[in-house]
Amino acid sequence: MKIEEIKKSHKRNLFDCGIKELNLYLSKTARQHHEKGISKTFVLIDELIQNEIIAYFTLLVCEVKPVSSVKTFKNYPHLLPVLKLARFAVDLNFQKKGYAKLLIANVIHKAILISQQVGIIGITIDAKNEDVALVYRKYGFISLGDELILFMPISVCLQLKI
Q1: Span 133-152, mean pLDDT?
Q2: CA-CA distance, 99 to 90, in Å (whole number)?
């Protein structure tokens, strides 16, 4: 297995995670946004099955408003820089095989590396529904007011052993 930046040679049209919006983003938009620097998309491939995408995630940097109930945000300015996990999907043929954990570990690793070079205080995710939010919470993400907007401070990323 290998996680790499999205390329033209990847078979994006074959990917189906069961969510039309995520499939369309991968097939029509992800590579163009990647090349333009709008966001960065990474794909999980099996090197034995050339260019077939098993899963993918998209990252970008954005700002969030601090939530007073989150201890991490105490004494921070009005807007806070974070790494956003904008999209995350596993193909239906590969779901429930541990690939989500592998990808989340890679996202956390990238967040740590980015935080050493650029000012970010954590990772944020807008979960699609409560079931998805539960999955992220089991890795240590916490709610930011709205139960579906989740956050993990860099300090927590550094402590995880995923």
Answers
A1: 86
A2: 7
